[in-house]
Amino acid sequence: MSGAAVLPRRAAAARRWHRGVPARVPYVVIALYALMAVLGPLVIDYDPVHTPLQDRLLAPGARIASGEIAWLGTDALGRDILAQIVYGARTSLTIGLATVLVASLVGVTIGVVSGYARGRLDAVLARIIDILQAFPAILLAIVIAGVFARSVPVVVLALSVTAWISFARVTRGVALSLRERAWVDAARVMGVPVRSIMVRHVLPFTVGPVVALATLEFALVVLAEAGLSFLGIGLPSTAVSWGQTIANGQQYLETAWWISTLPGIALSLLIINIGILGDQLTARYGQRRGRI
Amino acid sequence: MIRMIVRRLLIGLFVMWGAASVIFIIVRAAPGDPVTVFLGPDASREQIDRLTAALGLDRPLYEQYVSYLGDVLRLDFGESYRLGRPAMEAVLERLPATIDLTLTATAIAVIAGLALGLLAGRRPGGAVDRVVSAATIALQSFPTFWVGIMLVLTFALGLRLLPSAGVGTPAHLVLPAVTLALPFTAIVARLTRSSITEAMSEPYVQTARSKGLTERQVLLGHALRNSLIPVVTIVGLQMGALMGGAVIVENVFAWPGLGSLVVGAVANRDYAVVQAVTLLIAGIVMVLNLAADVLYTRLDPRIRTEARS
């Protein structure tokens, strides 16, 4: 009897596991990028200022003067492309994580407070969002990152200025619908302070949608950062970033296609996988994409 | 209808005021003052004082702000120190190139997006649908500037079919416009697919079928027509993103529009041009959003009657 019950269950679990395999791909890919960003620089040496010109514009797989193999080729200054991709991963992931952290903290706080409080505060928030969205997000980031001194914190700030908006929108929606629920009413009637209601009874419900949104925002932020670096805006010239490497390769397209092509593939693969993961999480947590 | 437009215009004016203020704050908070940028490092004390007074930078901040708002109203952003002429004049000269680029890209995105969405939505879950879904995810994930470079590599340098940069002939427009259009094509395709799929189960489609219309007539005449309404909305809503994309694409292809102008201006601290371009783009986006809203209410009779009542 029990054996008969166990078997289908096991079979069902196996089927679920098999069906789940494609769904796990994004986790694996993103984990590999994270590993590359954390451990890569410990394994591979790279100095953007060191320019061995005798190794310039070598094709992928060619041997450099020191006898090592440049698996992904070298750029116009003889610097290794693989190393630039590895170090660039660190830059992109750092800026992406920092921006999403700042944007979600600001956005969630503002969203919960204004959704719960409603009234004038909520109206002011709506107008602020209107004003910030008058500019294309990337244009505002270009202007902010462009006028201040080049540094990572400035880039994070420039990207956070618009990135918090979708977090505020989503959490505001959750807070608005929760404030009418019985347990929130009960807490209010029992005299629980407003701040405790927001933290203990409203905030926990925003976690799912916020995590899903954070994933999608992370992809947008990484893309935006690459765009800024491509334009030569924001990061100090000593920083290694995919956008910058792609820009450097643009004038050598005819002779050395690999300089621009390969970092772009690295970037696209990461964004595609984060996007798929974000869509999965969004489907699971039942909130619409905050993008539109 | 009129009332709604007036209301939206008032909000738009408020938003433009806010946008102008945001730019004022950013430019004022920026390190390095415009006077030293303008005169260069060799300027004498006297020259610096004279220009500071001429630009009104010695007055209190709120006075500067008020006179700045006055300048914005007159569309006067001052001289560009780099170009040696009024900033707005230089900006307006670059505007047509950007309009050409964004209009062409919008046309490509709408036509290709509708076609792809129609193909995919006809049989949800079918092979075509799956290919289109995968393609739209990829198109939305690729960085535009990199796609542009890859298109140059393939069509300009590899196949030698099209010019890689610059302006002149319609052929010069092809690669930049396609690059800019691709992510928006994906958005339109996704939206069309979902609204076609939804429409196919609506009663009016069943009625059309039971009248004996061919599947083609049902799709194009009934399902697609209704799917156009959300497409108009999304195109309007995406105008900001499209202008943002244009800024990047113009820099890939050395396209002489607002985008390449503003990036050069930011890099050289030419604040007069930065202010003129950002506010002009904000204004254009606002007007287009409004136009999309109005068009949307015209297209959908249900909303039209609601707005009237």
TrEMBL record, chain A:
Organism: Nonomuraea wenchangensis
UniProt name for this protein: Peptide/nickel transport system permease protein
CDD domains: TM_PBP2 (cd06261)
UniProt KW Nucleotidyltransferase keyword: no
Membrane association type: Multi-pass membrane protein
Cell compartments where the protein resides: Cell membrane
GO BP terms in the entry: transmembrane transport
Signal peptide start and end residues: none
Protein origin, superkingdom: Bacteria
InterPro entries in the cross-refs: BP-dependent_transpt_permease, MetI-like, MetI-like_sf
Biological classification of the source: Bacteria, Bacillati, Actinomycetota, Actinomycetes, Streptosporangiales
Sorted UniProt keywords: Cell membrane, Membrane, Transmembrane, Transmembrane helix, Transport
ABC transmembrane type-1 domain location: 89-278
A Pfam family: BPD_transp_1
One cellular component (GO) term of this entry: plasma membrane
SUPFAM superfamilies (UniProt xref): MetI-like
Keyword check for Transport: yes
Residue ranges crossing the lipid bilayer per the database entry: 25-44, 95-116, 128-148, 154-171, 202-235, 255-278
Membership in a protein family: Belongs to the binding-protein-dependent transport system permease family.
UniProtKB/TrEMBL annotation, chain B:
Segments forming domain ABC transmembrane type-1: 95-292
Membrane topology: Multi-pass membrane protein
Native species: Nonomuraea wenchangensis
PROSITE patterns: ABC_TM1
Example GO biological process: transmembrane transport
Presence of the UniProt keyword Secreted in the record: no
Keyword Zinc-finger (UniProt): no
Protein name according to UniProt: Peptide/nickel transport system permease protein
InterPro entries: BPD_transp_1_N, MetI-like, MetI-like_sf
Spans through the membrane: 9-30, 101-119, 131-159, 171-191, 228-253, 273-296
GO cellular component: plasma membrane
Keywords in alphabetical order: Cell membrane, Membrane, Transmembrane, Transmembrane helix, Transport
Top-rank lineage group of the source organism: Bacteria
Subcellular location: Cell membrane
PANTHER family: DIPEPTIDE TRANSPORT SYSTEM PERMEASE PROTEIN DPPB-RELATED
Chief subcellular location: membrane
Family: Belongs to the binding-protein-dependent transport system permease family.
